[in-house]
């Protein structure tokens, strides 16, 4: 049991050292780690993006459960990420009234880099 605890502690320390305790993290990843909601949002949003999903505003808002944040908070945080340039808002080709959201190239690249640091192949 002691070995399991040591291993779990090592993994948690590695995660913290490479995310919220990392002063050299990219601007986009820093933005999404400023609050616990944003971090949940980052993980859920990128999970759906990496699965190849085209995300409408409703899809993005529903990516994180309401128990984590109110609908108003989720909409506000999406708008902040768009305004900051981390998420790109495009008009849907199928329905011109609808908007599609995707990460900027910078955010996508920063997320992949962070994922590779946090979860290296030999981890």
Describe it:
The chain is mainly alpha-helical. The chain has one domain: Winged helix-like DNA-binding domain superfamily/Winged helix DNA-binding domain (Arc Repressor Mutant, subunit A, Orthogonal Bundle), CATH 1.10.10. Helices cover 58% and strands 10% of the residues. The chain has six helices and three strands, in the order αααβααββα. Strands 1-3-2 form a three-stranded antiparallel beta sheet. A hairpin with a 7-residue loop joins β2 and β3. The longest helix is centred in the N-terminal third of the chain and has 17 residues. The mean pLDDT is 92. This is MarR family transcriptional regulator. It comes from SAR86 cluster bacterium.
Question: Could you give me the name of the CATH homologous superfamily?
Answer: Winged helix-like DNA-binding domain superfamily/Winged helix DNA-binding domain
Tell me the structural class.
mainly alpha
As a percent range, the share of helical residues equals: 55-70%
Domain count, please report it: 1
**Quaternary assembly:** single chain
Q: What general form does the structure show?
A: elongated
Q: Between the first and last Cα atoms, what is the distance in angstroms?
A: 20 Å
CATH topology: Arc Repressor Mutant, subunit A
Number of helical runs?
6
Brief sketch in words of this structure:
It comes from SAR86 cluster bacterium. With 123 residues, this protein is mainly α.
Descriptors:
elongated, single chain, Arc Repressor Mutant, subunit A, MarR family transcriptional regulator, 6 helices, mainly alpha
């Amino acid at each position: 049991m002691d070995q399991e605890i040591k291993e779990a502690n090592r993994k948690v320390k590695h995660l913290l050292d490479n995310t919220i305790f990392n002063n050299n993290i990219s601007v986009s990843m820093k933005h999404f780690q400023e609050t616990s909601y944003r971090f949940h949002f980052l993980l859920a949003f990128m999970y759906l993006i990496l699965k190849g999903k085209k995300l409408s505003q409703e899809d993005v808002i529903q990516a994180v459960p309401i128990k984590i944040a109110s609908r108003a908070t989720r909409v506000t945080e999406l708008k902040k990420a768009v305004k900051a340039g981390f998420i790109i808002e495009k008009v849907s080709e199928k329905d011109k009234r609808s908007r599609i959201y995707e990460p900027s190239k910078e955010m996508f690249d920063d997320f992949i880099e962070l994922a590779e640091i946090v979860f290296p192949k030999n981890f």
